[in-house]
Amino acid sequence: MNQNLLIGIVAAIIIVGGGGVWLFASGRLSPGTATTTLSTLNNAVTTPIDTTSFAVNPTASAPIVTTGTLVVASNSSAVMTGKVVPNGSQSTYWYEYGRTSSLGTRTLSQALGSGFVSISAPAFITGLSANTNYSYRLVAQNDFGTIQGVTLSFITNNNPPLIGSAPATRTDAATSILRTSATLSGHVTPNGSDTSYWFEYGFSSALGNMTTFYSAGAGTASVNESVTISNLLPATKYYFRMNAQNQFGTVSGALLSFTTSGPAAMSAPSADTAAATNLASTTATLHGNVNPNGASTSYWFEYDTDSSLGSLLGSTTHKVIVSVAANQTNVSNDLSGLEPNTNYWYRVVAMNSQGTTSGDIVKFKTK
Question: What average pLDDT score do residues 151-157 get?
Answer without folding.
Answer: 96
